[in-house]
Amino acid sequence: MTKEEFMLIATQEADSNLTTNEGGPFGAVIVKDGKIVGRGHNRVLIKHDPTCHAEVEAIRDACQNLGTHDLTGCELYTSCYPCPMCLSATIWANIKKVYYGNTAKDADKIGFRDDFIYNYIEGKCQDISVLDLEQFGRDITIKSFDNFAQKTDKTIY
């Protein structure tokens, strides 16, 4: 299959929500060795879960289909530039190549506002109505980290 065909399938995933209303108009596919190994479309509304973005759904599907948490060697085709959460999930999955169709500005024009999250991450937003982030209880929680550091059978991912 060609890149255009993979992007068309990602777009078809997005288009499915125009009739089902499971979530926004976002779709994605994960490709490995020229074959689709994962598919997803936004399912935030149907699952009542704000993490069910198309890219995350496709990553979950690919991981289950391949029996791994490591998608090294895979490519992501997505109908829109990934939001910060989806970018993070893509990086955690070790996907090194992403093809995207629409831009974040295109998403903003139809009501999806990723920009305030980018602003928060970049330190341009200190408004606690967006998020009040406070460290607390490190003396309690660090013990788990210390114990993990001592394990000889740990897996770092």
Automatic annotation (TrEMBL):
The keyword Hydrolase applies. The keyword Metal-binding applies. InterPro entries: CMP_dCMP_dom, Cytidine_deaminase-like. Coiled coil: none annotated. One of its GO terms (molecular function) is metal ion binding. Keywords: Hydrolase, Metal-binding, Zinc. GO terms for biological process: purine nucleoside catabolic process. PANTHER family: CMP_DCMP-TYPE DEAMINASE DOMAIN-CONTAINING PROTEIN, CYTOSINE DEAMINASE FAMILY MEMBER. Belongs to the cytidine and deoxycytidylate deaminase family. This is Nucleoside deaminase. It comes from Megamonas rupellensis.
